[in-house]
């Protein structure tokens, strides 16, 4: 098989594993390549999706974030794996000083575009959460919306999130749980990329949990999230 053909196959598998495209009906999850793959095919897959004119997850913020805006205060906030910028722009519109990071250049470009259209500023940069420097005691809030990475990245990332929060800082997260796999309404299609309340309780243990719950809700957020979803939601605070 040619190198181009192998790369194409990897990209297609990354696509299926990450978002379940074309895998409605419960046959997702049979291919489990993504967690052990390099970030390269994953990045290429997201660059391809964000290269389209449309916003894959829409331009409105995530529902859980919108409903809990008041818990984040009015200081600085870092949005992880922020994609095309819908959440970062919403937070900037609401007076926070917003930075964001995403794996993709196309996502970051769309973030800047959306911010300009809305008349706000977001310090959006490209970076890999595997080694992105979050700083120490730096952020009044950190937001993680559908930031699904393999456990090899996620566990260390969450340790660094705890360090990076300022005293009293708040971490807000929504992610899909393993029960989402096979639903065909969005989200990763391998359990390894999903999260559970129990797992997050351990990974974020030094924080005080204000909300930590698994539930099913309608996730209608752009063409990428299209129906009933099984999610975990967290709001947690670092001690003063
Ligand atoms: C489902 S999208 C969510 C985007 C955004 N948070 C939202 O809610 O609209 C997942 C995002 O994770 C990003 N991502 C995946 N792995 C990453 C990594 N290792 N470092 C940074 N971003 C990553 C992708 O580029 C993609 O934008």
How much β-strand is present in the residues? Answer: 25-35%
H/E element order = HHHEHEHEEHEHEE
What small molecules are bound in this structure?
Answer: S-adenosylmethionine
Q: Which class in CATH terms?
A: Alpha Beta
Q: Tell me, what's the shape?
A: globular
- What kind of sheet is the major sheet? 7 strands, mixed
- CATH names the topology as Rossmann fold
Please identify, by name, the CATH architecture: 3-Layer(aba) Sandwich
How would you describe the overall organization of this protein?
With 240 residues, this protein is of the alpha/beta class. The chain has a single domain (3-237), classed as Rossmann fold. Helices cover 32% and strands 25% of the residues. It contains seven helices and seven strands. It has helices at 3-19, 39-50, 63-67, 86-93, 105-118, 151-164, 197-203, and strands spanning 76-80, 97-102, 122-126, 139-145, 165-176, 208-220, 226-237. The chain has a seven-stranded mixed beta sheet. Strand 2, helix 5 and strand 3 (122-126) form a beta-alpha-beta unit. Helix 1 (3-19) packs across helix 2, helix 2 (39-50) packs parallel to helix 5 and helix 4 runs parallel beside helix 5 (105-118). The longest helix has 17 residues, at 3-19. It is globular. It binds S-adenosylmethionine. The site of S-adenosylmethionine (SAM) has 22 residues, from helix 2 and helix 4.
Explain briefly what this protein structure is.
The chain is an alpha/beta fold. It has helices spanning 3-19, 39-50, 63-67, 86-93, 105-118, 151-164, 197-203; strands spanning 76-80, 97-102, 122-126, 139-145, 165-176, 208-220, 226-237. The chain has a seven-stranded mixed beta sheet with strand order 3-2-1-4-5-7-6.
């Amino acid at each position: 098989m040619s190198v181009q053909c192998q790369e194409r196959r990897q990209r297609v598998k990354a696509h299926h594993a990450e978002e379940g495209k074309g895998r409605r009906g419960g046959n997702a999850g049979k291919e489990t390549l993504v967690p052990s793959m390099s970030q390269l095919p994953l990045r290429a897959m997201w660059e391809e999706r964000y290269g389209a004119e449309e916003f894959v997850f829409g331009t409105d913020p995530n529902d859980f974030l919108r409903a809990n805006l008041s818990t984040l205060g009015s200081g600085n906030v870092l949005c992880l794996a922020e994609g095309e910028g819908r959440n970062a722009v919403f937070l900037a519109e609401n007076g926070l000083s917003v930075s964001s990071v995403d794996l993709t250049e196309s996502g970051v470009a769309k973030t800047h575009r959306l911010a300009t259209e809305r008349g706000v500023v977001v310090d959006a940069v490209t970076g890999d959460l595997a080694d992105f420097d979050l700083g120490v005691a730096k952020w009044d809030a950190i937001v993680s919306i559908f930031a699904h990475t393999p456990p090899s990245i996620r566990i260390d990332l969450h340790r660094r999130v705890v360090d990076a929060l300022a005293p009293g800082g708040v971490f807000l997260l929504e992610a899909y749980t393993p029960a989402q796999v096979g639903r065909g309404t969005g989200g990763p299609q391998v359990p390894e990329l999903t999260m559970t309340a129990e797992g997050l309780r351990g990974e974020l243990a030094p924080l005080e949990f204000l909300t930590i719950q698994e539930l099913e809700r309608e996730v209608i957020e752009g063409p990428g999230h299209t129906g009933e979803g099984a999610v975990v939601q967290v709001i947690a605070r670092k001690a003063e």
